[in-house]
Input
Amino acid sequence: MAGDDAFDIPAHPERRFTATGDLEYQGGVRFRLTPEGSLEGRAALVEAVLADGPYRFGDFLELPMPVYLVRDEGTGDVFRVSVRDGAVRLHVLPTTGEAGLCAFYERLCAASGTDWDVTRRRE
Output
């Protein structure tokens, strides 16, 4: 189970627009969630958690893995969620707060019936 400081955000990424107008993020933090036991269907589980709300979300259809841009209507936090290599990843954006990440984690635990290990990686 995640501790009280599991979703501390030591740094937020900075938005940068390239010369061609593309948006890039520099720096930031990513949280990797892995179930404590065996669990199949992680992408379907993430979709079910998002569909149950209080989320507004959209997926990036042209990527080889599920990636969603998510807004938690309860906390106002915006972050990305991806599913890759057997893990659910929460990607911090410039205005992401800890409350939204914690709420997603709690809903994921409830929907899966298991706790998830949380690791943080600063980029």
Q: What stands out?
A: The first strand starts at residue 14 and ends at 17. Strands lie at 14-17, 23-26, 29-35, 55-59, 67-72, 78-84, 87-92, 116-122. Residues 80 and 90 are 6 Å apart (CA to CA). The two ends are 24 Å apart (CA to CA).
